[in-house]
Amino acid sequence: MPTKQKTYSNEFKEEAVKRVMSGIPASQVARELDINVNSLYTWKQRYMKHPEQPFVGSGKLHKENEEKRQLRQRIKELERENEFLKKRVPSSPRT
Predict the structure, then answer these.
(1) Does 77 lie in the same domain as 47?
(2) Distance between CA 95 and CA 50 in Å, rounded?
(3) d(CA 10, CA 5)
């Protein structure tokens, strides 16, 4: 029977990370909070990389990643439009 993955609030993750950053060993924090120590290391890494918004989820992206996604999507749209226009415009004879 598959186990259901636990979910933790952003506040919980942030408090756990702050405890580790204050000097408490990650293994101790993980044991006290009954969480996987690897999850704690992952949370810490995300917190260090994006301290203003470390724990995005539910289909949300960090601001710069969202901008990249939108730009890639726009490029694809323009490429499709270009292909369509190439097919619609007859090629002119070269002289």
Answers:
(1) no
(2) 58
(3) 16
Report the C-alpha gap between 22 and 14 in whole angstroms.
Answer: 12
> Do 20 and 39 belong to one domain?
yes
Domain range for 74: 60-90
Helices (H), 1-95: 10-21, 26-33, 37-49, 63-88
48-62 tens-digit pLDDT: 887 677 666 655 656
Whether 54 and 62 have beta carbons less than 8 Å apart is answered as no
Answer yes or no: do 51 and 66 share one domain: no
**Domain assignment present for 36:** yes
Please tell me the total count of domains within the chain: 2
Give CA–CA dist 64/84, Å, rounded: 30
Q: What is the pTM of this model?
A: 0.54
Judgement on whether residues 48 and 71 belong to the same structural domain of the protein: no
Residue 65 phi, psi (nearest 5): -70, -35
